[in-house]
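ARCHIVE RECORD
Type: protein–small molecule complex
Small molecule: 2'-deoxyguanosine-5'-triphosphate
Source of inputs: curated submission
Record status: active
Notes field left blank by submitter.
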Amino acid sequence: MDNSQLASLLHEITTLMELAGEDSFRSGAFSRAGRTIETLPDSVAAKVKDGTLDSVPGLGKTLKETVTHLVETGTCKQLDELREKTPPGLVQMLRIPGVGPKKVRAMHLELGIDTLAQLKKACEAGKVAGLKGFGEKTQAKILEGLAFVEQSSERVRLDQALAVAEPLVASIRALEGVKHVELAGSLRRRRETVKDIDIVATVADPKEATAILEEFTRLPGVERVVGQGDTKASVVTKLGEGTKAIRINADLRVVSMHAFPFALNYFTGSKEHNVALRQRAQALGLKLNEYGLEGEGGGKKCKDEAAVYQALGLEYVVPELRENTGEVQAALDGKLPKLVDIDQVKGVFHNHTTASDGIHTLEEMAEAARALGYQWLGIGDHSQSLTIANGLSPDRVRDQWREIDRLNRKWKGFRILKGSEVDILPDGSLDFDDDLLAGFDYVVASVHTHFNQPREEMTARIVKALENPYVTMLGHPTGRLLLRREAYAVDLEEVLQAAKRHDKWVEINANPMRLDLDWVHCRRARELGVRLVTNPDAHAAEELANTIYGVEVARRGWIGPKQLANTMDLDGVLEELEARRKKA
Ligand code: DGT
Ligand code: CA
Ligand code: ZN
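STRUCTURE (tokenized, with ligand):
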């Protein structure tokens, strides 16, 4: 069981406890433990096995027992009992915007509603409106929300949410009277998936807030209004059309100029980062919340977020780092890392052309890379055994090399690099023999088949591939497809250790559907001193721009420019690859 599976069981316990009406103090402990475990690079399951669970912070006696049961059996008594007594429909109802555990409980206890279908019927019959604290309006919202739940998945990918959120923010910025507007929430922190779009804005004149919120609900892309008050509006936005349309909830909060930095900071989160900031404020005798920072002499003025951190005696913490994984202490000590920036990327290694399963030619890909300001572009088409992706035979590889040499005579200060994305075969050997591999500038080794191998076998397979002297880097190390396909079972700690031992790089695949290595393990790679590299794995020229998503993962993982191989300039990369080949 990996950490994210374990965390989701803990979150499930929290949710079920809330639905059962249990004390929020008790249920909160499970959700906090889940959040902690999500951010740990080491396998908690392994800690259970070797009896070192004590090293996980914040687990009391009960939680340790629960975690042990969950790891050993996949469940625990408490979870079994909760699942037993909770109709699954109640959990689904929580996805209706504006409906929390209290409302679900009321509908369940007083109207006997157990399923979404029953809820729909009850709303249509007007029964829900009659419940204490509900009313006609709430009932209508629930009906609309039901349609939303039917059409939306629980979380959406970062790129999908940004595609909706960025134009939305630009439109709000253009509204008359709006002073500042920023994305907040997990989207601003650039998490790989998000639940919704959080936006915070401010107006010069508080009387204008209502008008701004009203205009917001009418912006293009807004499909439906979920709720609208004096300071906040919630809408459902729509991306794409027909059965493939994606619906994302978006909240706009309008606050006063004075409160803006505090509100932006609060709604950016994460929740855990906020808690740590509040503790820091308390230690200074101050009180921090979404409205301001209060001391003995009254409220402090902060002109922006940086000033808020300054008032707390902290270095400014960029949103990507706000996960309470040590950033507040580092900010206090003046030891925050210098993070890599997209402008520092000089090239990318893992891209496809029409020779395998890409849709643009070598030359088209190269021109697109030049347009992005890159100094070099690595091509890594698939290898021979991957026939579904039109993998290259050794002869076709040599044809491609000749074509690359020909093209490379055209440019000054720019080069195409000869690479391959070579398949790691089920036994860990590579899909090309060493003689051919020696002829490439570099080699990306990736797993594309036999995803169901047991964990030990998969780990050994990848470690063996990393032992090959011609392999430069490991491609998409877990094979996950966000919200679609789980990672294959693999011990990333062992893989990272092997990468360290053999001086190999590990890819952060920048395709927004993948984003593996994930940020948690980037943190671990950083500790181990394993060099990382981000690659868009572009199958079309425009996908080269996806590199930004990989850089965001690196930033969330505290990675600086030196540790990301993409920041080498043309001379640097040629020298580095030459040195590696000499060693091989
Ligand atoms: P998401 O939407 O699940 O991808 O993640 P977030 O972080 O955007 O979470 P969301 O949308 O529920 O709330 C946005 C921010 O608001 C969150 O990052 C921190 C703040 N916030 C929300 N609820 C609480 C709370 O109960 N306590 C504290 N301290 N902060 C909260
Ligand atoms: Ca959010
Ligand atoms: Zn691949």
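CURATOR ANNOTATION: The mean pLDDT is 94.
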